[in-house]
Amino acid sequence: VCDVAGFVASTYHRGVALIHVPTTLLAQVDAAVGGKTGVNLAQGKNLVGTFHQPRAVLCDVDLLATLPRAELRAGMAEVVKYGLIADPSLLDVAATEAGAILAADPVVLAAVVERSVGIKAAVVGDDERELGRRAHLNYGHTFGHAIERASGFTGIRHGEAVALGMMAAAYLAEELGRVDGEVVDAHRRPLEALGLPVEGSYDIGALEAAWRHDKKYRRGVRFVLLAGLARPEAGVHAPRALVARALERLAG
Ligand SMILES: NC(=O)c1ccc[n+]([C@@H]2O[C@H](COP(=O)([O-])OP(=O)(O)OC[C@H]3O[C@@H](n4cnc5c(N)ncnc54)[C@H](O)[C@@H]3O)[C@@H](O)[C@H]2O)c1
Ligand SMILES: [Zn+2]
Fold first, then answer.
1. Is ligand 1 within 6 A of the CB of residue 128?
2. Mean pLDDT for back-to-back runs of 10 residues, the chain (252 residues)
3. In angstroms, rounded to a whole number, what is the distance separating the alpha carbons of residues 78 and 113?
4. Whole-angstrom distance, CA of residue 236 vs CA of residue 65
5. Which residue out of 3, 24, 47, 127 has the highest number of ligand 1 atoms within 8 Å of its CB and is therefore the one to mutate?
6. pLDDT of residue 153
């Protein structure tokens, strides 16, 4: 909803002002903040879009009281992402407070939303047009978006695909010798505590078909990978055999 509303607001009358009042955890911690809008085409995710900053974003965690657990879980995938790329203490919060979070405890959620928005706003404030570090926010999304497309955008939530995508990125980083098994465990632990998927079987050919349509696909797919917790790097190439190996490990 944030993406479609933002896209329409940015093009209607060549742009009208917009205030987001996100009602999902995912939108409160991520999609409503930062001004990126994207609309999917059959060829892929977010292929049509704009940058259009909202005038304000109002995150009221009381709105999340009616949100289904599966949607709370999906939103937490982006919070785990912030933990992995920027603030590892969020990984402990996700693991130890999973019960309260999935019960939509407003006190815990308010803290989670505040910290997440703080991280995203700082990154976007630094690099609005994604010339540099904003790309780190795409952690897990190269695999994740391809998984969504390979699934025809049905049957898997964005956050679930991102959870699988971050696991695949962790395995790929380990295969490349960039991180050790402890960093892989730091991915799995909070995701499992939240009940997010950490295993899935995906064909490398289907993911490559998605990558070829990606707007960021220039001379081969590049990944955001960690060199350690809170040490993301964008633009990393990986040999096909190691991508295949990472997918084998994701399949369990
Ligand atoms: N533009 C960005 O920067 C950005 C960032 C992250 C994600 N995204 C995109 O966001 C999308 C997912 O967003 P989403 O999770 O908000 O999806 P969504 O809008 O599809 O909402 C998920 C479900 O929750 C229901 N729902 C919403 N609020 C509710 C409430 N308060 N109570 C009960 N039910 C409620 C909706 O009807 C829907 O069924 C993905 O397409 C993803 O690519 C964009
Ligand atoms: Zn996302």
1. no
2. 97 97 98 95 86 98 98 98 98 98 98 98 96 97 94 93 98 98 98 98 95 78 97 96 98 96
3. 11
4. 40
5. 24
6. 84
pTM of the model: 0.97
Q: Which of 158, 214, 215 to mutate to test the pocket of ligand 1 (most atoms within 8 A of CB)?
A: 158
> With a 6 A CB cut-off, is 1 part of the ligand 1 pocket?
yes
Report the catalytic residues. Answer: 14, 36, 78, 120, 130, 134, 138, 141, 145, 158
Distance 140 CA to ligand 1 centre (A): 18
Asked if residue 174 has its Cβ within 6 Å of ligand 1, the reply is no
The predicted pLDDT at position 104 comes to 98
- Token look-up 């990125």 returns 169
Ligand 2 mean position to 174 CA, how many Å? 22
* Three-state SS sequence of the chain: CHHHHHHHHHHHHHCCCCEECCCCHHHHHHHCCCCEEEEEECCEEEEEEEECCCCEECCCHHHHHHCCHHHHHHHHHHHHHHHHHCCCHHHHHHHHCHHHHHCCCHHHHHHHHHHHHHHHHHHHHHCCCCCCHHHHHHCCHHHHHHHHHHCCCCCCCHHHHHHHHHHHHHHHHHHCCCCCHHHHHHHHHHHHHHCCCCCCCCCHHHHHHHHHCCCCCCCCCCEEEECCCCCEEEEECCCHHHHHHHHHHHCC
